[in-house]
């Protein structure tokens, strides 16, 4: 950088991505008023290919690869992601340097603005629900077999337009966090609780990725970290990594941290929702170990997250919770379900409940 107080920030070009990046920049400006920020936008593979379901594109890191390439070339100092878009394994020289306080991680039903249905249970037989997520698709098929589930792609605004201006979809299911960040709270017909729909790993959380050896940037990003969110998402990400899931298989979670007890629920489904394995596990978080920031090994991370201002013992407990829960599901046959889903590797044109 020619200006030592200037930081270049990588972001996708969508309205939601830029809104999320601005949240990061605003918080950093509050803590470091002398710093200046230049937002560098770019399109990712997932932004460019809109005519296929995400799992059928056949590539990983659909919404992150181009941003990470810019980071590795030192064209930007850090990049902002929706954490759920970040794979559980990052390029070897990169890390997640900050996780902000989580927005609502749940999913939301949005009904066509010209219809008056109040919840998913009230939708008529054979109503079409749009989603680009295998996870949502499988759970909808299992819990609401009277509905049809079809693919819908595009950014949030595009999907809302497709919903309202066409006659194909009765409703769509989206992350509540995105709707709230873009001030579309009034479009939320129903928040889907975890007992109705478990959410994606990391959903609702913002992540800042940087070079793991860039001590200056890591020190700056540290102020963004939210203790509870980090412990929850480390458990979620280690669960997913141990299972070897991703966008090509229906895997979902929910977490909560109550006092000192961290609870993790994890599940896998077949694409049509008929096969299902789910368990819950918990661990007691100490939260009282003295911080050992200066003694940490450079590049040390948990589930690819570097959080040097949080107890190392707590980070280990969270990571191990995810691993142990995944191992429990593996003993019950989870890998067979995931392998079968990956072999199909697409959301069918017809409702997945027709896949046997």
Account of the protein in words:
With 356 residues, this protein is α/β, with parallel strands linked by helices. The chain has a domain at 107-200 and 347-354: 3-Layer(aba) Sandwich (D-Maltodextrin-Binding Protein, domain 2). It has ten helices and 13 strands. The protein has helices spanning 15-31, 45-48, 65-72, 134-143, 156-165, 176-181, 215-221, 227-243, 312-331, 334-344; strands at 6-12, 36-42, 78-82, 94-99, 107-111, 128-130, 148-150, 171-175, 190-192, 206-211, 251-258, 261-269, 276-284. The strands form three sheets. It has a five-stranded mixed beta sheet with strand order 2-1-3-10-4, with helices on both faces. It has a five-stranded mixed beta sheet with strand order 7-6-8-5-9, with helices on both faces. The protein has a three-stranded antiparallel beta sheet with strand order 11-12-13. α4 (134-143) links the parallel β6 (128-130) and β7 (148-150). α8 (227-243) runs parallel beside α9 (312-331). It is globular. 49% of the residues are buried. Mean pLDDT is 88; it is low at 48-52, 292-296 and 346-356. Residues 231-289 form the Porphobilinogen deaminase C-terminal domain. Its EC number is 2.5.1.61. Its cofactor is dipyrromethane. This is hydroxymethylbilane synthase. Pathway: Porphyrin-containing compound metabolism; protoporphyrin-IX biosynthesis; coproporphyrinogen-III from 5-aminolevulinate: step 2/4.
